[in-house]
Amino acid sequence: MSKWIAYVLLASGLAVAAHLLWQTRVLSSNSTVLGRLSCTCPDYHVELGQWNLNSPLLDTLENLDKSEVYVTGAKNNWSSDPGTMFDYMIAEGEVVGIDRVVEGDPWNPVIRVARWDHVSEFTYPLRKWGAILMFLLGVLILWLRRTKVSHR
């Protein structure tokens, strides 16, 4: 019986992860999931899709930090709404430059955003970590079951 539960958990975890990747479009070459920063620093923290921040300009920099980005281009309509301003944002665009707060700080990419979308502040991490936990729990059950069978 626990073997079927493990397979259901594995399949469910993979299905939730696949849906999240499809919804956030990070498997395409120009999308990233961003989280809002509230500081005198870059505009957003990159939650998912750092590999999409590619540019020949970035390849020449030694002190580069792709975990935070500046944005320009299309207006983010969700950033001025108190109900959605801290949700996770999906930004589709391209790297057009670099910037930093002060001399000596690492360089951060500047993205010209062509299109914004958002994912709820609560459902994104819940689905992300839920998918990971379901998958790992399924693997653990199968591993424990296999270990138990091999000791008999």
Can you walk through the features of this model?
This protein has helices at residues 2-24, 56-59, 123-150, and strands spanning 31-36, 44-48, 68-73, 88-99, 108-119. The protein has 152 residues and is an alpha+beta fold. Helix 1 packs antiparallel against helix 3.
What is the radius of gyration? 20 Å
Based on Cα principal axes, name the global outline: elongated
Q: What's the pLDDT, averaged over the residues?
A: 86
Order of helices and strands: HEEHEEEH
Summing up helix and strand content along with how strands pair, one would put the structural category as alpha+beta
Helix content: 25-40%
**Largest beta-sheet details:** 5 strands, mixed, barrel
**How far apart are the first and last residues' alpha carbons, in Å?**
18 Å
Q: Strand order, main sheet: write it out.
A: 1-2-3-5-4
Low-confidence stretches: none
Count of DSSP H/I helices: 3
Strand content: 25-35%
What is this structure, in a nutshell?
The chain is an alpha+beta fold and 152 residues long. The chain has three helices and five strands; from the N terminus they run αββαβββα.
How are the secondary structure elements laid out?
Elements: H1 2-24, E1 31-36, E2 44-48, H2 56-59, E3 68-73, E4 88-99, E5 108-119, H3 123-150
Helix pairs in contact: 1-3
List keywords for this structure.
single chain, 152 residues, alpha+beta, 5-stranded mixed beta barrel, 5 strands, elongated
